[in-house]
Amino acid sequence: MVYKRKDEKFKLIKVEDEDNYADYLFSDSEETQDISEEDREFRKQLLAAVLKTPTNRQKKSYNRAVKNYIGDNVEIGTDGVKINNQMGAKKWRRVNNASMMVALTKEDDIILDGSDIVPSVVTAFSQLFIDSDKMKRWINFDSKSEEEQREILEAIQLHRLNKTLLEEEGFVEITNDDIDSDNSSNDDDQPIKGEGNNPVYQAVNCFNRIDRKLRNSLGKQNIPYDFIQDFDEKIRKTFTQNSNAEILEPMYASEFRKYARAIAQYNFLECLTIADGEKRMIHISNKKSFYIPPYTPLGSYLMMRSSTLTRTQR
Question: R3H-associated N-terminal domain location, by residue (predicted)?
């Protein structure tokens, strides 16, 4: 006869039915009171060392990857190439170039932010920190009241408007850089008698606004005076009739294109060279809303200038 056991010692139970996590206290407040500060710091260092230590399997995997990529005996400056006797000429050249670059490179020359490739852009805000005078002006402007700031901005806007009106009336604002101060004291650079009173359109200042290389070309002997006079007269006639006109003319000789650019600059115009296959053309246009020719044509001024230089040399 089999008797049923009354005790429930070996009865299967569920942990969820018996144990409740709410009955436990998951706090180390009592434990922390017994642990000193030095022991706590030591435990942190020990735990960090255990977590950072790679396993043997990780070490073998890493070493195998390094060995497969660069080989066992790879020197610094070989660009990751494993040197052996069966290397081709391209690999040897690659190794030699890498070794040479490593030998010539210094630690200070290594730039990781790419600033040596990408040029730095100096904005108006960054100029405040570069120039102390501009920062003082900005602080002075910022310390003013709103009404004073508005008055300053309106004055600047009015100045720009007056400048535009002067340009519409035929006046052009020029800087000291536009006039060559080195040659202004010479006798050949004095204003011509009989010219107008506006110094902007006097032949001396118009000639000095030409690029230095082009001026040197015009100062040589045996320049084509006929071409300069005819082309200058054509430009004057065309843009006097219509200030928005354009001139597009084929010109194959580079020497004549150079003189055409000089004539255009003398007349406050812009000259560009356009390539159409083997053909070369020049395009002359006016960027201003008006056109006022210089008082003296360029050819006449060059002749007077040449005769003056000849007399001074004698």
Answer: 83-218
